[in-house]
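Session log. Operator J.P. requested a structure for one protein chain; no other inputs attached. Running the standard single-chain path with token output.
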Amino acid sequence: MKITSTGLEFQDFPEFRTFVVEYELLGSVSLSEPIVDKSGNVLLKEKVAIKENLIKKLEEMDGKFIPSFKLAMSKDLMKMLKQVLAKAVLSRIEDKSNQFIKHLFEQNAEKMASLKGIIQNSFYTKSIALAFFRILLNEKDFFLYLADMGLLSLGSVIQKKYQFKMVNRYSFLAGLCADISTSKDGIYKRTLIGLPLTTSTSLSTEIARKFALPEEVIAAINGHPLAAFEIPNGNPPDINIEELKKHPLNVELLAGTSMEDESLEENDEEGEYAEETADVVLSALKIARYVSENLKVSVDKEHLSERLLVMFTYNSEKGIFRKDLADPMINRFVEFDAAIKKIRVIAEIENKCKFPPAAWAYPKPKAAQVLCKERNYQCPFIVNGWDLKIITAQDPFGFIGTSLAVGTYPKCALEEELQKKVKIE
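Structure written below.
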């Protein structure tokens, strides 16, 4: 099967037959070009509905015609593509190995009911539906990764009922397309931060424009890379933008003609640019990026969700993410409530630092001591004579832009408050 800008093409009759039968398209699609014999004589006219009797007739004529079957996009074919794509995306929520996303959406029938419609309606144009159907068939692992990004972005928004225009759909689309340029050599599996992320994002933004995505989505993709984003044990790739553009999938995606791509949906007016929607979508995508990159380097799978959420909560309380988006997500993880409350207190105590962000509760997440990371000996909170010697470097535990190097640090008096408020296990 070949996926083109206008529809689907088959050069093999058994494959064509299997496709229309398996996806229940009999009676609802037709060929855009006639079927001819090897002399060019028309055997079956175009625009005739593909029904069971026609399939049987072709079976009887097998070998007597040129096996070229072209299905033009129609509402029925579009409906099928949307259903197949939505099913593939939703399967990520049911996948038990996809622990964080499963916890984010599970046990919420009301949200799940609306989720299917949000995802289906996100594939609302020919170019989007055909592009992602191609990726699903040819690069399934890459498709699942893009789906996870979409669900992470949507998951941070759907927990709360925003009244902003298209905010759920746009959040999903932003996550879905943020890394669409990164299939080459498995770049998407590597740590995407800093310059590599900026480089790949520029091409993903270009592809998003080819899709004629709403400006709110394009702005979020283009603006979401965080300037100070540290991932412990990360493995960022070296990306050459010109080589990335030459990757076959990107060549196909960039060759799209968005101006000719009309939506097959009715009542699908986007309207004017909505600032409130754009701001929420951008924030949601930043959260998705943060979670995704931490998931890539997590090695303790048994406690993956607990560790990741504790890290996320800590950063939320430190002001890295919008609390109106982060707090509803946090509340979905009821089973981790004790760990979340503890890390909230730790962040609150660190925020009392006279020279922020020098106060560093150690070791995270089960902190028992507080030290001064910046060694500000002039600070009134310094406890002289009780310096702490760190013999193993501490990763940021999800905190963007800071880690703790091996060395000796002065003790901070905030430790006393920490020990009063946090029960050390």
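Operator note: The two ends are 59 Å apart (CA to CA).
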